[in-house]
Amino acid sequence: MISIASVAQRLALAGVVLAGAPGCVSMTVGMTAPVVKIASADFNREADLDFAREASPGQIKTAEGFLAADPENHILLEVVTRGYIEYAFGFLEDDIDSMPDDPKHAADRERLVKRTTDLYDRALGFALRLVALEDKNFKDAFAKDVAATEAEAKKLDKDAAPGLFYTGLALASGINLNRNDVARVVDLPKAIALIKRAYQLDPTFGNGQPAMTMGVITGAQGKAMGGDPDASKKYFEEAIAASGGKYLMTKVLMARVYAVTAQDRPLFEKLLKEVIDAPANIFPEYRLANELAKKKARRYLTRVEDYF
Fold first, then answer.
1. 265 and 304 in contact (C-beta within 8 Å)?
2. What is the DSSP code (8-state) at residue 194?
3. Which pTM value belongs to this model?
4. In sequence order, which residues have a C-beta less than 8 Å from that of residue 126 and are 6 or more positions away?
5. How far apart are alpha carbons 291 and 282 in whole angstroms?
6. Top-confidence residue, 36 or 26
7. 126 near 132, Cβ under 8 Å?
8. In angstroms, rounded to a whole number, what is the distance separating the alpha carbons of residues 250 and 1?
9. CA angle, residues 138, 143, 145, in degrees to nearest 5
10. Can you tell me the distance from the alpha carbon of 36 to that of 4, in angstroms, rounded to the nearest whole number?
11. pLDDT tens for each residue of 229-240
12. 198: Cβ–Cβ under 8 A, 6 or more apart, which residues?
């Protein structure tokens, strides 16, 4: 496996990094960024969840260090933004989900929610910088209201889809963890607008993640509460089709969100059992995400009586 840190060391030893010459440093980082992207992709193949959890912060911070030398590097901005979101969701939110929601664990839960929120907020900052590479006016529009944000997002094309998606996802994820914080909840329409725009531009991005996230958003509540379970089901089915059913997290979220909201226990159990029974090598390029999906599927199945 390619190590980002070892790449940096070899470049330095070879005399490629020229101290005191910002232009040369920027050029060097530009040459190194594709290697960082390869290393990030290779990391997604990791099968050992504990090993990945320990290694992930170092991977992210190394990439972030390169980014400090070349702040507008598109590749590095995307790697760092995605890294923070995936670490927060894949490991820290999973810890929150696993933790008993009772007074005994309240303080630990509060600390973990704050830490996870802080990382989503970091990701949001990087995501906004990523969109700014396509539209320098976007950050100012985002600081205003949902109408201004949506209008500016509509000016962007498919190249901006990753940045728009990560901006909306980071914002929505922080809101989801702090539903009693009115200052955050007020921005939910803004987050939804950005995710929806990313979906319109590139619904299959990241194995259908914009469609998958729209499935979560529309399926989190029943029709009586303003949700749209029928739309949720279609979004999830579209997202599953984007990877040919190989990206297992989509099935897990469809079970946990749509099937629970629709109170469809047979579908809930069917989807989760499909995830658990899927071959370990069904999607080698995303082995880590699939191992996380299997872990969640096993936990949700043990809680089936709580959901139905």
1. yes
2. H
3. 0.90
4. 77, 80, 81, 84, 166
5. 11
6. 36
7. no
8. 27
9. 100
10. 6
11. 999 999 999 999
12. 161, 162, 164, 165, 168, 205, 210
Write out the H or E segment, with its range, that includes residue 268: helix 265-277
Q: Residue with structure tokens 């995307």? A: 78
Q: Which residue has the higher pLDDT, 4 or 157?
A: 157
Check: CB of residue 220 under 8 Å from CB of residue 261. yes
Contact residues for 261 (Cβ-Cβ < 8 A; gap 6+): 219, 220, 221, 222, 227, 229, 232
CATH for the stretch 86-202: 1.25.40.920
CA 40 to chain centre: 14
Note whether 177 and 116 are within 8 A (CB).
Answer: yes
Q: How many residues does the chain have?
A: 308
- The residue written with tokens 């929120």 in the block is 117
* pLDDT value, residue 31: 79
pLDDT greater than 90 at residue 268: yes
Cα 213 to Cα 219: distance, rounded to the nearest angstrom? 10
pLDDT for the residue numbered 89: 98
The angle subtended at Cα 151 by Cα 146 and Cα 152, nearest 5°, is 100
| Mean pLDDT value of segment 149-170 | 98
* Ramachandran bin of 145, using left for φ above 0, alpha for ψ from -120 to 50, beta for the remaining angles: beta
Angle at 260 between CA 222 and CA 269, to 5 degrees: 155
CB within 8 Å of 288: residues ≥ 6 apart: 43, 44, 45, 46, 47, 49, 52, 90
CB 262 within 8 A of CB 282: no
Q: Domain extents for the chain?
A: 1-71, 86-202, 205-308
Contact 198/161 with Cβ under 8 angstroms? Answer: yes
Selection from 199, 205, 273, 283 nearest residue 235 by Cα: 199
